[in-house]
């Protein structure tokens, strides 16, 4: 692990590289292969925790692993129950993702707090930085497990979700060393929570096109996910006549194209068929069943609902025409979230103090704020990423932009008046 940094680390022009070095170190805790693969309650998740604990300790926070698999760092004021601002992001990644998605939002506030601590600055309110265990929803067919726990909106059926090995989320948490029965007690008190602020790479090209280091997020997209199962009839690939076959994969392929047609024709709606599993998945057997996922995104719930209904009708038409059976189950839904005006203004003022140009912009991605909006005001600072690339091994930010993000957060924290929140 990194040694205690020298004082020169906190000089202007040095903090950005310090931040990137941290992110490089965290990226080592990954499954073998390209990019970063670090799933919820995995060995890699367990291995990265001591590193983040070290970051938290240097920032003057006391780390604790909670019942939902979140690593939470609190300052003395937060531990004593004073009004608290929550910051943070997620430690988990997609498969073969990048080193900045999620982890940047953990590292930036901790470097900001460490730098303020080095300068002798004491904030007049509590701060809490959370490394959420799960946001991507890759291992289990559920997501925002950690932030829903803090918001007090975890549902019991979430804990029964199972990964591809048949392990339930409840079992995985217990194997990880925490007790999921304690999740309800994690809910934060809205009256004592000042807000939730997250730093994240933009995951799009707008900041790069504007030549801006950072941007102020106005709202987060709404998301829904569905699992579709198409059932047909298996048979010998060489002896079953082509006419009259009930090939689940051929039908599912038709359905995937139908989903794409709806998405292409519906303004304000985007989506993807991201996973597809074939059974029995043998070279000489007609596929008996196919399971695939559909994800729909739009800031407008009415648009998502319309798209969902149109897609459902199209899939049933394919199933009927091809003699297949179909089930379509909703596995996740989160409405869009609007960022609080006072947080947006505070981030804008911090940018202005640093003479950093910025503008307000919408996020087409979902984030932990979708859950945290149920307990407190939310806000988000975007950081420019090269070519707008994300969920990819080549995602990248510069040291200069990383330093801007840290210094914006430092200004925001110092200018925040807890009596004027909301």
From TrEMBL:
Keywords: Hydrolase, Manganese, Metal-binding. It comes from Vreelandella gomseomensis. Residues 222-320 form the Peptidase M20 dimerisation domain. The keyword Hydrolase applies. Homodimer. Its cofactor is Mn(2+). This is Allantoate amidohydrolase. Pfam families: M20_dimer (PF07687), Peptidase_M20 (PF01546). Belongs to the peptidase M20 family. Gene3D superfamilies: 3.30.70.360, Zn peptidases. It comes from the Bacteria. The keyword Hydrolase applies. The lineage of its organism: Bacteria, Pseudomonadati, Pseudomonadota, Gammaproteobacteria, Oceanospirillales.
């Amino acid at each position: 692990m990194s040694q205690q940094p020298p004082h020169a680390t906190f000089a202007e022009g040095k903090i950005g590289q310090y931040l990137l070095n941290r992110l490089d170190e965290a990226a080592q805790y990954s499954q073998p292969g390209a990019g970063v693969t670090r799933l919820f309650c995995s060995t890699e998740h367990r291995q990265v925790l001591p590193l983040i604990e070290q970051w938290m300790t240097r920032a003057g926070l006391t780390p604790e692993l909670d019942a939902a698999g979140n690593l939470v760092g609190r300052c003395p004021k937060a531990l004593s129950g004073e009004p608290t601002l929550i910051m943070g992001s997620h430690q988990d990644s997609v498969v073969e993702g990048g080193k900045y998605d999620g982890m940047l939002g953990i590292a930036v506030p901790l470097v900001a707090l460490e730098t303020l601590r080095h300068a002798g600055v004491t904030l007049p309110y509590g701060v809490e930085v959370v490394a959420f265990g799960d946001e991507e929803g890759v291992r289990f067919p559920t997501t925002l497990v950690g932030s829903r726990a803090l918001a007090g909106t975890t549902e019991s059926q979430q804990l029964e979700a199972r990964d591809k090995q048949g392990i339930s989320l409840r079992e995985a948490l217990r194997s990880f060393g925490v007790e999921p029965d304690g999740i309800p007690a994690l809910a934060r008190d809205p009256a004592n929570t000042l807000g939730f602020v997250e730093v994240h790479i933009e995951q799009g090209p707008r900041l790069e096109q504007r030549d801006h280091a950072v941007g102020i997020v106005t709202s987060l997209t709404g998301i829904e996910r569905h699992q579709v199962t198409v059932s047909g009839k298996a048979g010998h690939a060489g002896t079953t006549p082509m006419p009259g076959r009930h090939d689940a994969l051929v039908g599912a392929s038709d359905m995937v194209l139908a989903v794409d047609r709806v998405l292409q024709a519906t303004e304000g709606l985007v989506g993807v068929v991201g996973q597809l599993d074939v059974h029995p998945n043998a070279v000489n057997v007609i596929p008996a069943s196919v399971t695939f996922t559909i994800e729909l995104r739009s800031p407008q719930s009415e648009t998502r609902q319309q798209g969902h209904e149109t897609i459902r009708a199209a899939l049933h038409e394919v199933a009927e025409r091809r003699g297949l059976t179909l089930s379509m189950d909703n596995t996740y839904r989160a409405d869009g979230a609007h960022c609080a005006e006072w947080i947006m203004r505070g981030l804008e003022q911090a940018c202005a103090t640093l003479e950093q140009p910025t503008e307000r912009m919408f996020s087409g991605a979902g984030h932990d704020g979708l859950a945290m909006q149920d307990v407190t005001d939310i806000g988000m600072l975007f950081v420019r990423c090269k070519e707008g690339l994300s969920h990819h091994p080549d995602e990248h930010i510069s040291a200069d932009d990383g330093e801007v993000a840290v210094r914006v957060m430092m200004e925001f924290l110092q200018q925040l008046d807890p009596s004027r929140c909301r």
